[in-house]
Design brief:
499 residues; mainly alpha; two-stranded antiparallel sheet; 3% strand; membrane; Transmembrane_161A/B; EOG090X04CK
């Protein structure tokens, strides 16, 4: 309990610091307002009238001197009704002005609060997790207590999914987004069928670990029920569990459809705008390739076989052990995620430049357009900047969250072997219902013993193998979704550029 108290103190201090720091500094606001982003200003009605040759509205008439307003028949000096909407040629020649993104400009943006919260909270989750890892390294016995950083990571994953649900819900609440709704539904159905096919692959080729997780859970649950003297037919069948995973894959796949298309467009535009900046261009290329490379790390014949099994000429052993390979896989997931965050300002600027591209495409069309519609085309690009930011950051946050949870709950280590003895930590006596019942002592020591017994019972059922399978599969699926959706977006963009 003392170890858990230390974690509680660290958590409370972090929450207090998070509240104080957010008042002075926000990493989300810094990304939007301190990285040199510029947005385009739409032309005013006065400028459009002047360029189109449309007469300006007459000024308000002034009353004559000495004339008074009396009784019911008083003269009303009203301003003439100004025509707010007027049509202008689509090929009207004008240039959009630019302005730097300032803190006051981003406050009215859609989903601004959600974007700032998700980005800032992910930063504090990383801080809490690093402090917890250092604490566990110094005090190995702390592994017997509840790891509160996992609760932070679980909340982070929940916030990221909730943000994607909110953004995807825009297509279902709008009456003009029928095509987008259909694409989301079709994407969810497609990923459901694809997940069913992938879950049938032998795990000797695709090491997602669900079969081992099911076997470990089935065995530990049966032993636990046997010690309780309870009759049960056992956990659900493997087919039902895989069907549940396929449903989860379909839901996340539907949420990733438009983020993948958006990210692919931003990366292509960013490559075009930063062609002279070699370092940034290299980061963007890494972002495009990294989900594909990470998803291949779970394919045993293409990854583990060459690193952990095959012995090359002049060597007496493989390049690395299984533990080192698993640690390398965790490191690559974190490093590539951070590289994607570094390139975020360039991708955001590429998105904001769409306003200028829309106006250039508009000039190639014939006919007329209303001033309100033209201004809306320019303004809506900046208005949905935070929506695009959520589509960019939420997949990265999910990858980081599942990687951290996979490492800690799966018993992995950052540098090969885990820093504490798993056999020693798992050597707990069988837990029965009588052990969980409260005692008459009511002392602090008895409460601590009951708490440890409850944790031990939980770990007997949900062992390291179970968490390795669940979070390992979730991590791989997020990487595969990022690669697949971005790849479809690149193919889509390439096709329409060549048409």
């Amino acid at each position: 309990m003392a170890l858990l108290g230390v974690q509680l103190v660290v958590t409370l201090l972090t929450i207090s610091i998070m509240h104080k720091v957010n008042e002075r500094f926000s990493f989300g606001k810094w990304l939007l307002c301190r990285t040199g982003l510029v947005y385009y200003l739409h032309p005013t009605d006065f400028e459009l009238r002047k360029l189109a040759g449309i007469p300006q509205p007459k000024p308000k008439a002034k009353p004559k001197e000495g004339e008074k307003k009396r009784g019911k028949n008083k003269r009303k000096w009203e301003e003439p009704v100004e025509e707010k909407t007027f049509n202008i040629p689509r090929n009207l020649d004008f240039q959009l002005e630019t302005a730097k993104v300032l803190p006051r400009d981003v406050l009215p943006l859609k989903f601004f609060t959600e974007f700032i919260w998700l980005v800032d909270y992910s930063v504090f989750v990383m801080i809490v997790y690093i402090i917890t890892e250092i604490y566990y390294a110094l005090m190995p016995k702390a592994s017997q207590e509840v790891n509160l950083s996992m609760i932070w990571c679980l909340l982070l994953v929940g916030f990221a999914l909730k943000s994607l649900f909110s953004v995807t819900g825009l297509y279902f609440r709008s009456t003009e987004a029928g095509a987008e709704r259909s694409m989301v539904l079709v994407g969810g159905s497609f990923f459901f069928v694809l997940a069913l096919g992938l879950l049938l692959i032998d795990e000797s080729n695709l090491e997602i670990g669900l079969d081992a997780a099911y076997s470990a859970f089935n065995q530990s649950a049966s032993v636990f029920l046997e010690h309780q003297a309870l009759d049960s037919e056992g956990p659900a069948s493997k087919l039902i569990l895989k069907l549940c995973f396929a449903v989860w894959c379909a839901i996340t796949g539907a949420l990733f459809v438009f983020p993948g298309l958006r990210v692919s467009r931003m990366h292509l535009d960013a490559l075009r705008y930063c062609s002279e900046r070699i370092v940034l261009k290299a980061f963007i290329y890494i972002n495009l390739v990294s989900p594909f490379l990470l998803s291949l790390l779970w394919v045993r014949p293409l990854a583990r076989h060459y690193f952990c099994v095959r012995i090359y000429g002049g060597m007496e052993a493989p390049l690395m052990t299984d533990h080192s390979f698993e640690s390398m896989r965790l490191w690559l997931c974190i490093v590539f995620s951070l590289v994607r965050i570094i390139s975020a300002p360039a991708c955001f600027q590429a998105y904001l430049n769409l306003a200028q591209e829309k106006i250039q495409d508009l000039k190639k069309e014939a006919g007329k357009i209303s001033n309100v519609e033209l201004q809306r085309k320019v303004f809506m690009i900046f208005y949905y900047l935070c929506v695009v930011g959520l589509q960019f950051f939420a997949p990265i946050v999910l990858c980081i969250g599942f990687t951290l949870m996979n490492k800690t709950t799966g018993g992995y280590g950052w540098f090969g072997l885990h820093h504490f003895n798993l056999d020693e930590c798992n050597s707990q006596p069988p837990v029965t219902i009588s052990n969980l019942l409260p005692t008459d002592e009511g002392s602090l020591s008895s409460a601590r013993e009951q708490w440890l017994v409850a944790i031990s019972s939980f770990r007997q059922i949900f062992s390291y193998e179970v968490f390795r399978g669940v979070f390992g599969f979730a991590n791989w699926w997020i990487q595969f979704l990022s690669f697949f959706t971005v790849g479809c977006g690149l193919a889509y963009q390439s096709y329409f550029e060549n048409v």
